Amino acid sequence: MSNPNNMSAFVNRPALGIMPPENFPEKLAESLLSVAPSGMSRVQTMACGSCSNENAYKAMFIWYRNKERGHNIPSDEDVSSCMINQVGEISFISRMYRIHMVHIV
């Protein structure tokens, strides 16, 4: 944190795509991927702790449903019902018409 070379990363918030330094992918690989669990070769940064958790829940439910379906293409009914807060088989959190809701069909 006290390294002046990191100041632009703290100020510009490159995780949000705002003025990332040229070496941002390398910095992520050195810092985050260097301690990633075995088999994990990618990382996605988020803006805050809440959206990080919500993104993790979404990823978990998407993985679960894709595994259950045997493919990754939701039906038209799944797509139309998930954004209007209709009951699904697995729901965790939902907010009417919100992009950050976790209601996976």
UniProtKB/TrEMBL annotation:
Q: Which cofactor does it need?
A: pyridoxal 5'-phosphate
Per UniProt, which keywords does this protein have? Answer: Aminotransferase, Transferase
Q: Which domain of life is it from?
A: Eukaryota
**Protein name per Swiss-Prot or TrEMBL:** Uncharacterized protein
The family note in this entry says: Belongs to the class-III pyridoxal-phosphate-dependent aminotransferase family.
Q: What GO biological process terms are annotated to this protein in UniProt?
A: gamma-aminobutyric acid catabolic process
Organism the protein comes from: Hucho hucho
Coiled coil (UniProt feature): none
Any matching Pfam family: Aminotran_3
